[in-house]
Design brief:
elongated, single chain
């Protein structure tokens, strides 16, 4: 039996919004790691620059995944607003409460995923 859309929204909207806030906070906290690396050889040694470039690359990759997750969360909220939340974007069937509990932003059922 499928739950009512309002019940789904009441259960999962706060969780999605909280995750959005947490991701935004983490992005702000790590913004310094994504700054351009100074290439002045006088102030920083070669290995230190390489380490800084590696940290920057990893921070950029993490931020890219974070932005992709934010897009999924925003789309889930949009589906809630449209009354389509909880239904697979592939086949239109109900996704399932256990799957939504694991990832409330998932757009597809287990068969279509």
């Amino acid at each position: 039996m499928e739950p009512e859309p309002k019940k789904l929204e009441a259960q999962f909207r706060p969780q999605i919004e909280q995750e959005q806030l947490e991701l935004a906070r983490r992005s702000e906290d790590t913004s310094g790691d994504r700054r351009p690396v100074e290439l002045d050889q006088q102030s920083v040694g070669r290995l230190s620059r390489m380490d800084a470039l590696q940290v920057q690359a990893m921070a950029n990759a993490v931020d890219q995944r974070r932005r992709a997750r934010l897009v999924l969360l925003e789309r889930a909220l949009r589906r809630m607003d449209d009354g389509e939340y909880g239904y697979c974007t592939g086949c239109g069937e109900f996704i399932g409460m256990r799957r939504l509990a694991v990832d409330p932003a998932t757009p597809k059922c287990i068969r279509c995923a």
